[in-house]
Amino acid sequence: MGFFKCVFLILSFLLVDPVPSFADSYSVSSKGFSEVSASFLNFAKKKEVFDWIVGVRRKIHENPELGYEEFETSKLIRAELDEMGIPYKHPIAVTGVVGFIGSGKAPFVALRADMDALPMQEMVEWEHKSKVPGKMHACGHDGHVAMLLGAAKILHEYRELLQGTVLLVFQPAEEGGGGAKKMIDAGILENVEAIFGLHISHDLPIGEVASRAGPILAGSGFFEAVISGKGGHAAIPQHSIDPILAASNVIVSLQHLVSREADPLDSQVITVAKFQGGGAFNVIPDSVTIGGTFRAFSKETFAQLRQRIEEVIIGQATVQRCNATVDFLDKEKPFFPATINDKGLHEHFRKVAGDMLGIRNVKEMQPLMGSEDFSFYQEVIPGYFFFLGMMDETKGKLASVHSPFFKINEDALPYGAALHASLATGYFLELLQKTTLLSGKQHDEM
Ligand SMILES: [Zn+2]
Ligand SMILES: [Zn+2]
To answer: Which end of the chain has less Cβ packing within 10 Å, N or C?
Structure first.
């Protein structure tokens, strides 16, 4: 059975209340909608709803799971959806879940949260610290899941407003595993018109959001190279071929790719972050392994970098009489395309977020060289990714994502939940307005 056919079947069984039409209950005006988005935020801030969102986040934080192992997280999500009476499909891409709220009919809009944690030890001492040694939610994905469940609660509460169907996409393995790609391969974007995603930000004030139209995050790839020479006594170098010196020259030469070959106005990064070789003070090792990441915004630049990285590693190793092999780890760490925000959805976001938070709290930001697998969705359908502020100066500075000291200011969670819900609800409203205008125009022309 096709993915959507199956979903329609579930929805038709589970939607007990007939859904009144939006036009019946609400006037199609932007003033009407700004009241709606304000009431979404108030609802998410209500003590019982806030406490529930925070509780969900803390439960996930205590039990962090790595990519494609988010079994308990997925179970918790499904239990909460069951509790709300929201139908869903599972499993998708091992642990993924897609919930459905609304009319059961087109248009379809998706909201996405990532579920995976990082392989690192939490250093924050608090009541809900990670109970799993060596694993931590240090990128805020626990908060992302809690906010999307919060949005589910809001959308379910206000379901009579939905002139379409919202897909709640809980995906596995954002941190390098390409979970988004596997969700797409499973067909979740079939008939979906737009997708929204957010990331919590430690250095943006609470109540503010930031994004931009066009490229916002870079495309990223990884490489690993083994440079082989001939080991021997460190005091008799003439009898060895030193791979440490060769690897050092390789690293210096790789830095020339960005500084000398790239257009200074086309942002690119190459970082060698891994260097393994040797173990004794007086032994030249047989080989050295280096590895790193490279970033660029366009596909052409990315392909050019990839080709030159390979040429430079092999060529420079040869200069030092070494052999080199280069692996771009396509299977384990698939290449992420650049995250490119749709222009039309940017306008929609500014309007919705501006209505809720005040337009001065909707910031335009510079692109970052970080990457996100949300970009896979944007390669298939129009998508929009934004950052949600959580900094509160009165509570001190927050550590950045991927730090063992990373903390979430939980006061930000209702904002994310309400924004998710408003972006979807507002999308249907705008579409309805456009269709109404268009049919009016056609009528006038007749
Ligand atoms: Zn991360
Ligand atoms: Zn993240």
So the answer is: C
